[in-house]
Write a structure and sequence with these properties.
497 residues; alpha/beta; Amidase signature (AS) enzymes; two-stranded antiparallel sheet; 13 strands; disordered N terminus; binds glutamine; Amidase_dom
């Protein structure tokens, strides 16, 4: 089948495995596949603002290598030749990396993040860098200095955040998969809003080297994809030990070949606190999901996790404290934006930071400095650290009773544009279901489980014990296979194959 970018039919997503086999059987060349995606990005990106930069030369040069391998009759690795994206906080040598902040506009890294080094060795086809909330701080992508990414299901709604661009690109079929980062939900929440799959791996499983830091004890890179198997394939590729990341935990066994194992006799935990204040339609979709699992032979275990009520304040104290320290490096001296007119170094630093950072980033730096200041350290930061220990322990106890914990990913569906700028605290509250996982360092995945009355996707979160990626991916895969036709919706845009 030849690819004709001008064909008028509605797009159809193909899985990584399907594209891999079509490349091998020469149904199209990698160059044709890549060009079809690049054309789609050029044609459609202005509607959803998923990409802030396209990288056609990088993409076509990888495609050329793949076509040469195919011509020599060589085997391809699973991700070889597959068109993908990177969030703009993942460093790419010689390609501008901005974190969607004015303070980093024009910054060209001199090294590649480890995840990008790994994927380049597999000849991944990088289509471009994706939109995000400034320094990954936000839940709607609207704090981006490039303006927010829009939801392909309804462009008057946001794609979510902070990895909103990656989710919009995958949902809009402008990329097969993307890498995002998740500090408090930034992979899972936009995946939920856009009706696709997003996984945050166990802390330390994927190298953070070259990921521009927001809150280092919580940040983790992971896959955003249109089906569970694709997410598993990408996870298998990037979950490698890296001596450049002191928190790296070492390679885990590949999981993508083990999907589809029976769930009979498995236990799903349902902590009541996760369902407090959840919108009716979301709650209903989750109840239906529980029934699907019951029909697969899973037993439900209901329990309380009262310590969860502290998760949100603990997250916002720790994340802001770490951010205030990490963002100290943007001072107009070493790299990035520098103010034009100043008298003396203090004024230079002050003006550079005042002009370069957006309002949300400044708010968090102020909050972070406040909770770390000598008079308040014990009352906020120290208390939050202690509570972090209690939250970790509560999850440990919970996993003694069940294999997987199920919850909504977000208590609602995608916000209308502008929601986040109205009330910051309201927006922070919507992170309630995603942040506990980062605090405890656990793996979690968001998968689609239905739609609300206006056709916006609803996401379900499956949380596993540390290093139990295989367990959550398998549980997610079984649900997806069972419900695919009701939970997945193509949007009429993107690449036409
Ligand atoms: N919405 C959360 C925040 O603003 C999570 C962001 C993230 O995971 N990067 O901090």
């Amino acid at each position: 089948m030849a690819i004709s970018p001008s064909k008028k039919e509605v797009s159809f997503k193909m899985s990584i495995k399907k594209l891999h086999s079509m490349l091998l059987s020469k149904e199209f060349s990698c160059k044709e596949l890549t060009q079809a995606y690049l054309d789609a990005v050029q044609r459609e990106n202005s509607h959803i603002n998923a990409y802030i930069k396209a990288t056609p030369e990088t993409a076509l040069s990888a495609a050329k290598k793949v076509d040469e391998k195919l011509a020599r009759g060589e085997e391809l690795l699973p991700l070889e030749g597959i068109p993908m994206t990177l969030k703009d906080n993942i460093s790419t040598k010689d390609i501008e990396t901005t974190c969607c902040s004015n303070i980093l506009k024009g910054y060209i890294p001199i090294y590649d993040a480890t995840v990008w080094q790994i994927l380049q060795k597999q000849n991944a086809v990088l289509l471009g860098k994706t939109n995000m909330d400034e320094f990954a701080m936000g839940s709607s992508c609207e704090t981006s200095c490039f303006g927010g990414a829009k939801n392909p299901h309804n462009i008057s709604h946001v794609a979510g955040g902070s990895s909103g661009g990656a989710a919009a690109a995958v949902a809009g079929n402008l990329a097969v998969y993307g890498l995002g980062s998740d500090t408090g939900g930034s992979i899972r929440q936009p995946a939920s809003f856009c009706g696709i799959v997003g996984m945050k791996p166990t802390y330390g499983t994927v190298s953070r080297y070259g990921l521009i830091a927001y809150a280092s004890s919580l940040d983790q890179i992971g896959p955003i994809a249109s089906c569970v198997e694709d997410a598993a394939l990408v996870y298998d590729a990037i979950a490698q030990y890296d001596p450049m990341d002191s928190t790296s935990q070492g390679k885990k066994a590949p999981v993508s070949g083990n999907l589809g194992q029976s769930l009979k006799g498995k236990k799903i935990g349902v902590p009541r606190e996760y369902f407090d204040g959840v919108r009716k339609e979301v709650s209903f979709a989750l109840q239906q999901a529980l029934k699907v699992y019951e029909s697969l032979g899973v037993q439900m275990v209901y329990f309380d996790l009262p310590v969860l009520k502290y998760a949100l304040p603990v997250y916002y104290i720790l994340a802001c404290a770490e951010a205030s320290s990490n963002l100290g490096r943007y001072d107009g001296i070493r790299y990035g934006y520098k103010t034009q007119h100043y008298n003396g170094i203090h004024e230079m630093i002050c003006k550079t930071r005042s002009e370069g950072f957006g309002a949300e980033v400044k708010r968090r730096i102020l909050l972070g400095n406040y909770v770390l200041s000598s008079g308040y350290y014990d009352a906020y930061y120290k208390k939050a650290q202690n509570l972090r220990g209690s939250i970790i322990q509560a999850f440990k106890n919970a996993f003694a009773q069940c294999d997987v914990i199920l919850s909504p990913t977000v208590p609602m569906t995608a916000f209308k544009e502008g929601f986040s700028s109205q009330d910051q605290v309201e927006t922070y509250l919507t992170d309630i279901c995603t942040v506990p996982v980062n605090i405890a360092g656990l793996p979690a995945i968001s998968i689609p489980c239905g739609f609300d009355g206006s056709g916006l996707p609803i996401g379900m979160q499956l949380i596993g014990d540390t290093f139990c990626e295989e367990t959550i991916l398998n549980a997610a895969y079984c649900f997806e296979q069972e419900t695919k036709t009701e939970t997945l919706k193509q949007v009429p845009m993107g690449v036409r194959l």
